[in-house]
Design a protein that fits this description.
Strand content: 5-15%
CATH architecture of the largest domain: Up-down Bundle
Number of helices: 21
Number of strands: 12
Helix content: 55-70%
Distance between the termini: 42 Å
Shape: elongated
CATH class of the largest domain: Mainly Alpha
CATH superfamily of the largest domain: ABC transporter type 1, transmembrane domain
Number of domains: 3
Radius of gyration: 35 Å
Structural class: alpha/beta
Strand order of the largest sheet: 8-9-10-5-11-12
CATH topology of the largest domain: ABC transporter transmembrane region fold
Protein name: ABC transporter
């Protein structure tokens, strides 16, 4: 029977806080971005303080320049002393930039990198929680793009906010503040440039956002296509389809280039118009302040000072316009990440029973199942039971529902109606993570990762001795392979284990399953990748290792399931026949027909 562990699943506080920020500000992207830095506000405040200090030479230099020019042109007797004092002050102000810039960078960079890490960590954890159905529908390339590219865009936007945008705001504020203190007339002239900037931004913002969204979607699609292309290279090469595959990718790359070109053109047009407008205003400013100096309203030094501040304001407004595409990309990426974190299609184990022991009794009770958005059921009113320690083989035509039954037992799918009972408990009430620690699955296609053979076999297990491992290697018929390799178990596998044959990969996968010492074993055509000799060699080992374990087997080669306790023939959405190998052969029904087809 199932023994319950009195524990609940909970998210880490940081992860829960992150999700809450996305939920609360679902329709306010900028608020979401600001909310991400909750807990870092004090750190960012001191970063701002040091930014102001380190950036002050930009604001002080025009005043010092004006003082020196005025002193030099007036010919005062203390001119040299005044000039020297101004130079010393300016040197001190400039040199302090090094330590204060370092402190500012450390403070803001730590905050940004921590958020970058937390976002990626939260996405990865959410991907582990999302249902298998979700993953079947979502292409891996898009998910990869969200983890890497979108988080990078958010980080880039954050860096721009804490460096460029902050600099822009302070430069404009200080410049206008000094100018209004010195001359209201010149200040009013400066203010006349703001409506021009606003008009330019309003006109172009919508188009830039639209083109950027289209470009990002096209890049996601390209990421998907590239991954598919790489994985299909052996198939492409085997069928001499390189030209067709290249043309297909070139079409996709052309689409990206077209979308990118549209974005580049609108951004370039935007930047060009804004630059021309502000340069014209800058020339006008020079003429205007020159006129005031000629009329003795201001000094020559103040002409230089006002021109410098006006250039600063023009440059900052121009920078805002240039930043709009980066801001649009960053905010779009915040929404993209939110699509993952706020998705409700999750496998929710919170507050469900955690279990520490399973005996292996499985009962299907009036089970119906159909895929989402499908009207046709895969299974209808399916009922059968498996006793602890029994081996049940499922056979039938492709698409009959055999793998669906296995997925229901694993908990990847949930029944549309009816119940799947594990030791008398509805699987829907179980914490599936704790339940799955008692099962092992060998899929049709072995899934290996880029690490040693040892790490692939003991994946997720830390308490296995070398003696036990060697027994499992022998049982899985891996001894000869391991001994033939220079580094033995420490041989590094390439991507997906491609430096092993299909049969060798499957035997590593089988060894991995038995390391887990499962109570329930699921073999989904586990020997289909093996040649006849390897299959025969390993079949006896499998039969000895499944003893005492509830085992569910899907097999197309009917000869491999002769020793199963029961055979279930699946078809027409239900159970057509159920019995031992000999019983079904005597009945001369569906199983008999399937067996005859393979003889």
């Amino acid at each position: 029977m199932i023994e319950e562990i009195k524990e609940n699943d909970r998210l880490e506080p940081e992860e829960e806080a992150l999700l809450e920020i996305f939920r609360r500000n679902k329709n306010h992207t900028l608020k979401t971005l600001i909310g991400l830095y909750k807990g870092h506000y004090l750190q960012l405040f001191f970063s701002l303080v040091f930014f102001v200090i380190k950036h002050c030479p930009v604001w002080i230099l025009p005043i010092v320049t004006s003082n020196i020019i005025n002193t030099a042109t007036n010919g005062d007797k203390d001119a040299v002393k005044v000039i020297l004092i101004n130079v010393i002050i300016m040197i001190i102000v400039v040199v302090q930039n090094v330590p204060t810039n370092y402190v500012h960078t450390v403070l803001y960079a730590k905050a940004i990198r921590n958020i970058e890490r937390d976002l990626r960590s939260s996405i990865v954890k959410k991907l582990q929680q999302l249902s298998i159905a979700y993953h079947n529908e979502m292409q891996s390339g898009r998910l990869q793009s969200k983890i890497m590219r979108d988080v990078e865009q958010i980080e880039n936007l954050s860096a721009q906010i804490f460096i460029t945008i902050l600099s822009i705001i302070l430069n404009i504020a200080v410049a206008l503040g000094i100018v209004i203190f010195k001359s209201l007339t010149v200040f009013l002239f400066f203010i006349a440039t703001i409506p021009v900037a606003v008009i330019i931004m309003v006109v172009f913002r919508g188009k830039i956002k639209k083109y950027n969204k289209e470009y990002r979607r096209e890049m996601e699609e390209t990421s998907v296509r590239v991954i598919e292309m790489v994985e299909l290279i052996p198939v492409t090469r085997a069928h001499a389809l390189e030209k067709q595959e290249t043309e297909k990718m070139n079409n996709q790359l052309s689409n990206v280039a077209k979308k990118g070109l549209k974005l580049d053109i609108i951004q370039s047009y935007f930047s060009s118009i804004s630059w021309v407008a502000f340069q014209v205003f800058q020339v006008i400013c020079l003429g205007f302040t020159g006129y005031l100096a000629a009329k003795k309203y201001i000094t020559i030094g103040e002409v230089v000072m006002y021109q410098t501040y006006f250039s600063s304001v023009v440059m900052q407004v121009s920078n805002v316009i240039t930043l709009l595409p980066i801001i649009a990309k960053g905010l779009e990426s915040v929404n993209s990440v939110g699509d993952i974190l706020l998705c409700n299609d999750i496998e929710n184990n919170n507050k469900k029973k955690k279990i520490k022991n399973v005996t292996g009794e499985i009962i299907f009770k009036n089970v119906d199942f159909r895929y989402k958005d499908s009207e046709v059921p895969v299974l209808e009113n399916l009922s059968f039971s498996i006793k602890p320690g029994e081996t049940i083989a499922f056979v039938g035509a492709s698409g009959a529902g055999k793998s669906t039954i296995l997925n229901l037992v694993i908990g990847f799918f949930q029944t549309t109606n009816g119940q799947v009972l594990i030791d008398g408990e509805d699987i829907k009430n179980l914490n599936l993570q704790s339940y799955r620690s008692h099962i092992a699955v060998v899929p049709q296609n072995a899934i290996l990762f880029s690490d040693t053979i040892r790490e692939n076999i003991i994946y997720g297990t830390n308490d296995i001795s070398d003696e036990e491992l060697n027994e499992i290697i022998k049982a899985a018929n891996l001894e000869e392979l391991v001994e033939s390799l220079p580094d033995g178990l420490n041989t590094k596998l390439t991507e997906h284990g491609r430096n092993l044959s299909g049969g060798q990969r499957q035997r590593v996968s089988i060894a991995r399953a038995f390391v887990r010492k499962p109570k329930i074993l699921i073999l989904d055509e586990a020997t289909s990748a093996l040649d006849s000799v390897s299959e025969k060699n390993i079949q006896q080992s499998i039969e000895s290792l499944v003893k005492g374990r509830t085992t569910l087997v899907v097999a197309h080669r009917l000869s491999t399931i002769r020793n199963a306790d029961k055979i279930a023939v699946i078809g027409n959405g239900g159970l057509q026949e159920f019995g031992t190998y000999d019983e079904l052969m005597e009945q001369k029904g569906e199983f008999y027909k399937l067996k005859k087809l393979q003889m």
